[in-house]
C-alpha cells in the first residue's frame, strides 16, 4: 500500500524557518509525481510546490523565493524547506503523490495519495 508520512511541522515565529519531510513507501518513487499542498483554516486546499523525478520544481506564486521543494530519490523522501514564514502560511501541510501522467509540474492534475498532514503555525 502507498504510504506518505509527513513530519517537521510546528509553531514558529514570523520570519522563521521550518523543514517538512515526507517518507514515501509502497510504490516506485521515481515513477510518481510528488507535491506539497496546504489547507489554511477555513479555506480550500491549495498547491504549494511540485517536483518531478528529474528534480525540476514549480512553486506556487505565494511561496516563490521562500519555499523550496526537494527530494532524495534514494531514500524515497520529499522535503519542503520553508523560510521567511508569514502568519498566512499557517495551514495543515500535506504530502501527495500521483502516477506520472503528463507533466509533474501541472497544478491542475489530481493527486491520488495523501499523507495525514502536519500542522504549521506561524505566529506574528
- End-to-end CA span: 40 Å
Helix content: under 10%
Mean pLDDT score, rounded?
A: 96
Structural class: mainly beta
Poorly predicted regions are none
Q: Report the major sheet.
A: 7 strands, mixed
Order of helices and strands: EEEEEEEEEEE
From the alpha carbons, calculate the radius of gyration and give it in angstroms.
13 Å
**Overall number of strands:** 11
Helical stretch count? 0
Beta-strand portion reads over 45%
Give the CA-based shape: globular
Can you describe this structure?
- It is a single chain.
- By secondary structure, the chain is mostly beta strands.
- The protein is built from no helices and 11 strands.
- The protein has strands at 3-7, 10-13, 18-25, 32-39, 46-51, 57-59, 67-72, 77-82, 91-99, 113-114, 118-123.
- Strands 2, 4, 5, 6, 9, 10 and 11 form a 7-stranded mixed β-sheet that branches.
- A hairpin with a 6-residue loop joins strand 4 and strand 5.
- The mean pLDDT is 96.
Would you kindly provide a brief summary of this structure?
The chain is an all-beta fold.
Features:
mainly beta; single chain; 124 residues; seven-stranded mixed β-sheet
